[in-house]
Amino acid sequence: MDLKEELGKTIRGEVSDDEAARAAYAHDASLFEIRPQAVVAPKGVEDVRNLVAFASAHAQEGVSLTARSAGTDMSGAAIGDSIIVDFSKHFGRIEEVGAGYAVTEPGVYYRDFEKETLKTGQLLPTYPASREICTVGGMAANNSGGEKSLRYGKTADFVEGLKAVLSDGKEYALGPLDKTALEGKMAQEDFEGGIYRETYRLIEDHYDAIRAAKPDVSKNSAGYALWDVWDRKTFDLTKLFVGSQGTLGLITSIRYRLIRPEAHSKLLVIFLRDMGRLPEIINAVLARAPESFESYDDHTLKFAIRYFRDILRQMKGENLFSFAWQFLPEAGMLLSGGFPKQVLLAEFTGASEAAVDAKIRSAMDALAPLKLNMRATRTEAEARKYWVVRRESFNLLRKHFKKLRTAPFIDDFCVKPEQLPKFLPELYAILDRYHLRLTLVGHMGDANFHIIPLMDLGDPKTPDIIRSLSKEVYDLVFRYGGSMTGEHNDGLVRGPYLERMYGKEIYGLFRKVKAIFDPAGIFNPHKKAEATTEYAMAHLKKA
Ligand SMILES: Cc1cc2nc3c(=O)[nH]c(=O)nc-3n(C[C@H](O)[C@H](O)[C@H](O)COP(=O)(O)OP(=O)(O)OC[C@H]3O[C@@H](n4cnc5c(N)ncnc54)[C@H](O)[C@@H]3O)c2cc1C
User: pTM for this structure?
Assistant: First the structure.
C-alpha cells in the first residue's frame, strides 16, 4: 500500500511522508526516537473520523495513530512508528469563553488560551512549566500539572467534558452522568453502549481493589484513573480519558472549568543550605496555605547565572543592565561560597497587597528561629526572575550541552511532603552512587520532583544506567507508597513499571481498559499499559 496516497484520499488535511517531516516528528522532549511512516494534519472532525476508520481497516498491517499536539511530551508518548496525527495545525480554535468555563480545540497553545481567558479575568491554573510551548490538548491527554496544582489540583480536576473520536470512527461527548443517564447509555445496543457496559462492569467487579489502588499522594498521572470514574453516584469517562495519552481515542474538543485568580501575589524566597531543616520549613510554609511552593537546586541556579541571557529573553520588556543587577545577590553568594543547596519559592496570594504581606510576614516570623537566608520579592519583575529560572531549567539544559543530553527518566516522582526527611537522604544515597551531572527542581509542596541527569547517549553504558537507576529510584518511591509520575505521565519510559507500581490485578485492569476502548490496537501503541522495557530501550536516542 502507498500510505501517503491512501491517506491523501482519506482526509482533506496535509499528508507528508518525506524524510524531513518524518525526521521532524521522530522526537518529542523525551529520551526516545521513533521515525513515523507518515505525518498528517487533519482539517476538522470529519478528517479525524476518517483517519480512525482508515487505521481500523488497516490495523492488521500495523497501521496506528499517534496523536500529537505541541510534541513537548517528556515520556515518549507523542512519537510512534506509523501515522502521527498533528493537532497543532488545524485544531487551534477556542470555541467559547464563558463565565467559569472555556470550550477549546486541543491544538490551542496554552499561552494563547491564557491570553483569551485572562481577558475575562479567568484562568486555567493547571498550566505546566512548559506553558509557553505546550497545548491545552496535550495538557488534558497527559493530565498535566504545574506550580499552581498545590492549591487548585491538576488538569483532570478542570476538565468538565470532552469530545473524542473513539475506535469505531465516531465522535462522542464524554462527561459526568448520573445513575439514570448511565443506565440509558448501558442500554444502547451500539458501540457506545458496549463501552459503558464493559467499563461499568470492570469497575463494579473490582470496586474495592480499584479504590484502594489510588496512590495516596497529591499528584498522580500513572495508569488509567479508574478510581475516579464511578463513585456509585456519578459515572464520568472523562476521568479515564484525561491522562490516557491518546491510547483510548483522539480528543477533538475540551470544556475546561476556569477560576478567577487572586489579584495580588508575592514570593517568599528561601535560600537553603542545610537540607536537614526542610521538614520544619515545609510545615511552616504549608500551614500558611501558599498558592504554590516550588524549588530548584544549586545546579539549576548556576546554569541560570551562567546562561542568564537566555533567561533575559523570557523576561519580556526587561533590559540587560537591570536584569543583570537582579542576579547580584545570587552572584554574590556564588563568590562568597555561601551558595544555597536549594532555592525554595513560596508564592502567597490575596485580594490585596496588605493581605499578601501579612501572610508572608507570618511565614517569615514562623521561620525566623531557623535563621534562614530569605527574602520577600518587592516587584513583579523580581518575582518573574525566579519563575523563569524555575520554568526554564529543563530548556536551558537541553540547549546548552552538546555532547551530553538531558535524559528524563526519573523526572517526575511524587511522595508525601511529610515523608521527605526520610525519603530525600535515601534518594540522594542512590543518586550519589551514580556520579551523574543532574538538576533537581520540583513542586516542594506536593513532594513532586523533577530530576534530569545529563548523559552521553552514545556511551554503551548509558542504557544500563538508565535501567538500573530507574529501578532503584522507583522501588524507593513505591516503598513509600508514592507515584512514579505526578504529572509527566507514563509513555514509553514509565509504562514498563506500571505493574510494579500497582500490582498484577490493577495492571491487568489497565490492559482491559485498553482492550475495551481500542480492541484493534490503533491508538498510540507501546505506551502506558502496553509499554515494555525492550521496546523503549530499542528506541533510545543514539546521540
Ligand atoms: C521544558 C518542559 C517543561 C515541562 N514541564 C511540565 C510540567 O511542569 N508539568 C507537566 O505536566 N508537564 C510538563 N512537561 C511535559 C509536557 O510539556 C506537558 O505534559 C504538556 O502538557 C504536553 O503538551 P503538548 O501539547 O506538548 O502535548 P504532546 O507532547 O503533543 O502530547 C502529549 C500526549 O498527549 C497525546 N495527545 C496530544 N494531543 C492529543 C489529542 N488531540 N487527543 C488525544 N491525545 C492527544 C499525545 O499522544 C501524547 O501522548 C514539560 C515539558 C518540557 C519540554
Answer: 0.94
